[in-house]
Amino acid sequence: MGKSNQHTWQPGQSGNPAGLPKRVKRFYNALDRAILQEDGERLRRAADALLDAAASGESWAIGMLADRLDGKPAQEIDVDATVTQAIVSDEPLTADEWTAQYAGGVATTGGTTEGAD
Predict the structure, then answer these.
(1) Contact in structure between 35 and 43 (CB atoms under 8 Å)
(2) Model-wide pTM > 0.90
(3) Is position 61 within any domain?
(4) What is residue 58's predicted lDDT score, i.e. its pLDDT?
(5) Does some domain include residue 60?
(6) Which of 50, 80, 87, 107 could cross-link with 99 by S-S, CB 3.0 to 4.6 Å?
(7) Residue 2 lies in a domain
(8) Tally of domains within the chain
(9) Any residues with CB less than 8 A from the CB of 2 and at least 6 apart, and which?
């Protein structure tokens, strides 16, 4: 006898309609206030210093400017993972029945598989 799922949503209905709570960006807010207090003069000086560092060949400054102007380049991710599937049934299969139905091999006695690569 299977359990009834108490958390079943209709197609197109979100399980979390309010979404995640908004995070307070304390550093951003403090920096924004500091920039506004001086009419942005300190920000302009910081940007000038960054441009000067990049112009003098500082690789970190060149990289930072490129990231800010063009966006960071996409990074390749190599994933090596094993996928495991769980099959739930009210009527459990024997090892041989499961192997024949899901493993793509030929079931043998003892629940082992032949021919599945």
Answers:
(1) yes
(2) no
(3) yes
(4) 95
(5) yes
(6) 107
(7) no
(8) 1
(9) 88, 90
Determine the average pLDDT of the residues in 10-24.
76
Residue 89: what are its φ and ψ, rounded to 5°? -145, 145
Question: Quick one: pLDDT at residue 87?
Answer: 66
Tens of pLDDT, residue by residue over 60-86, are 999 999 998 888 878 888 887 777 777
**Nearby residues of 52 by Cβ (< 8 Å), 6 or more positions away:** none
Domain-embedded: residue 63: yes
In 3D, which of 87, 117, 81 has the Cα closest to residue 101? 87
| Domain with 49 in it | 26-70
The Cα–Cα gap between 84 and 76 comes to: 24
